[in-house]
Amino acid sequence: MKAQRKEASVEMLLRSLCLPAFVANYEGLAARAARDGTSHVEYLRALSELELRERAQRRVARLRKASGLAGEKTAATLDLGRLPAPARTSFAALKDGSFLENATNLLVFGNPGSGKTHLVSALGHELVERGHSVLFTKTYALVQRLLAAKRDLRLPQELRRLDRIEALVLDDIGYVQQDREEMEVLFTLLAERYERRSVLLTSNLVFSKWDQIFKDPMTTAAAIDRLVHHSVVVELNVSSYRAEQALARAGAKGKARKRGSGPQEVGRG
What is the 3-state secondary structure (H, E, C) of 13-52? Predict the structure, then answer.
């Protein structure tokens, strides 16, 4: 009974210190340590390593849940072989996350279906696995979020919340056709993150057509200048992956029909 009370008090202390891995493993590791003659220091080291490992796993799980990243668009499902060599090189160089330290941006350009979204999403997953905070969002959705914050007089607070995100992924910036108010909040966001936090964006519009986004030539030039100053630019000059898949499916169906319509033996009634 006394030993049970002692164990209960130990668990209470460990729980109060927020050490769930200690709580789950201290008895089992203690028995093993006694059996193997492990020192107290080694025993504590083993418990501490378990705690740190599980904390890292919990942090990654929280970051992944908050990231907005599509679960299926990972490096494992990314067909790097169909991407241009510079894109493969950039992906390999960026996935360790060191570029975030210098607030370097990643700008990915390409036609619809070329794999832009999958590329930045896969990179986002790699960053999350390394403990970095990521937020993936369609650009138009974030613009509406910022507009709502501005109308409610809480735009500075919303920008501060976004500033806590190390890698902000703005997908499909080229599809946003803003009025002046929308353009202003998007430019404010980019200006706030300049040389402080990284932006990863995809666009089907080359820079020469960005006046369709920002309307005003001076604002367009200022936005581009802030983005490219510290950046890696990737161009995906490849055919549409979706179109390739559709053609492959159509070809497979055609072959199946051809096989099914071959000569057949006519039975006698």
Answer: HHHHCCCHHHHHHHHHHHHHHHHHCCCHHHHHHHHHHHHH
